[in-house]
Design brief:
By secondary structure, the chain is α+β, with helices and mostly antiparallel strands. It has 8 helices and 7 strands, in the order H-H-E-H-H-E-E-H-E-E-H-H-H-E-E. Helix content is 55%, strand content 19%.
Length: 201
């Protein structure tokens, strides 16, 4: 059901491009390209969610240094495809920040956090690791104000299904982050501070 609507829209745009006169072709192709990209984003999110569900059900928690997760996500340089030219700053300290979790699931969660910041936030974007009391945190922050408060309450929870049906990867991506947090005894926090909008796992 989550894929039928965007696939039907792509088919309709392709059929219109074939039937329309040549003058409208560039506009039709532009719409077709945007729909295809949106569907690609949605498929990436759905595959990511399926991987996380499998890993959190089957992979036993092991000690993981959150600094390694942040470094790995930045070094994979996926952000260069999502937002060419946008630098991602890495903010990690010298001391290990160890949690018991699954490394692959954590990487998927942080990739989704970073992807949302790049797609919907404002540069510059930072990814960091820190401690807050007894909590270990990995976070992504952009310079924007974040979504409106009413949307903030829905993102990552029941918003997931309606987001996916509209091809909106933000709600689906943050639901992945929430799933990883809950699987390993953590939590997801979102809010605006002096440096911008921050999502924290």
């Amino acid at each position: 059901h989550q894929l039928r609507t965007p696939v039907a829209a792509i088919r309709a745009q392709a059929e219109l491009a074939l039937e329309d006169d040549a003058a409208h072709l560039p506009q039709r192709l532009d719409r077709l390209l945007r729909r295809t990209r949106s569907l690609g984003d949605l498929l990436d999110q759905m595959l990511s969610r399926a991987l996380v569900i499998h890993r959190t059900d089957n992979a036993p928690p092991e000690p993981v240094d959150l600094r390694d997760i942040a470094l790995l996500v930045v070094e994979q340089r996926d952000h260069e495809l999502l937002a060419p030219g946008v630098e991602v700053e890495l903010v990690i300290g010298e001391a290990p920040v160890i949690v018991r979790a699954d490394e692959i699931s954590l990487c998927e969660a942080v990739k989704n956090m970073l992807g949302n910041a790049l797609r919907h936030g404002t540069a510059p974007v930072r990814i960091g690791v820190s401690r807050a009391g007894t909590s270990c945190e990995i976070w992504v922050e952009d310079a924007g104000q974040g979504p409106p408060p009413d949307m903030l309450e829905r993102i990552g929870g029941r918003f997931e299904r309606s987001a996916a049906s509209r091809g909106n990867s933000a709600g689906l991506g943050l639901s992945i982050v929430r799933s990883v947090a809950e699987a390993f005894g953590g939590s997801l926090m979102m809010g605006t501070g002096p440096e911008g909008f921050r999502v924290t796992l």
